[in-house]
């Protein structure tokens, strides 16, 4: 472990805050502190300089930064009952971190609390199950809508997805880390539409093996989406061979279905794997209309990379 980790603890600076200051991921900074391994991208010298500048701005004195990127021998010495002379010297010389009472004319910054890294999946022991007579894993995936736990934020997302499904919203992107519950909300939406007998056609192209380029996997292209829409809306029709005829066939099928009172919702999971051209083509699907009435809504579910792809900058 690098001495940098001890400096952050002494001055009450979180890894998340430092990672933001130097424009790297928190995971990369954590690996650097624990193993001394630098990110593959970028210059090691430039990263060290950026970290030192950020720590100076946070109030760390220069004498503490001299050995910031050395291994912290105190970890091993403490385990054997010894004390590291270098660690003791640095601890003795460390200045008091910035006081919570800000000087006049300055605003105090709330100290950030370091959160835990992702832990290994936890399960109930056999003894606990017998003790409380629990025969089914309470942390397993929900089997019905009543088992879905909804936080306040989850309820907001659930309602936004519902408004998109019934046609009040044309486009929605739900972004969250893996395991945040995006797919569960999508499954609950399908159950809710079925339970309320809503006239909504869910169109979900298969995304197995989908990647943003053909080197990593297979791109999901606009003609693949068109085939999925045709299959869901007019399954008995054979898609035309030429792109022009196929998209005309798609438009006519959506118009006919819409005039029968049906809503259409295109749902794409793992949308962070979409290629940028495909994301741009989705706008053209949204522009398909029957008069002034839009024919289809789009719901994207993806990880934070999707937000970066959709960033207007």
The number of helices is: 14
- Portion in beta strands: 5-15%
State the helical fraction.
Answer: 40-55%
The top-level CATH class of the largest domain is Alpha Beta
Structural class: alpha/beta
Shape: extended
The H-level CATH homologous superfamily of the largest domain, spelled out, is: P-loop containing nucleotide triphosphate hydrolases
Quaternary form = single chain
**Average pLDDT figure:** 81
Largest sheet: 4 strands, parallel
User: From the 3D coordinates, which CATH architecture of the largest domain would you assign?
Assistant: 3-Layer(aba) Sandwich
The strand order across the widest sheet is 1-6-3-2
Model description:
The protein folds into two domains: about 5-95, 434 Repressor (Amino-terminal Domain); about 145-310, P-loop containing nucleotide triphosphate hydrolases (Rossmann fold, 3-Layer(aba) Sandwich). With about 325 residues, it is of the alpha/beta class. The protein has helices at about 5-10, 15-20, 25-35, 45-55, 60-65, 75-80, 85-95, 125-130, 150-165, 180-195, 220-235, 245-260, 275-285, 305-310, and strands spanning about 170-175, 200-205, 265-270, 290, 295, 295-300. About 45% of the residues lie in helices and about 10% in strands. Mean pLDDT is about 80; it is low at about 75-90 and about 90-110. It is extended and about 75 Å long. The strands form two sheets. Strands 1-6-3-2 form a four-stranded parallel beta sheet, with helices on both faces.
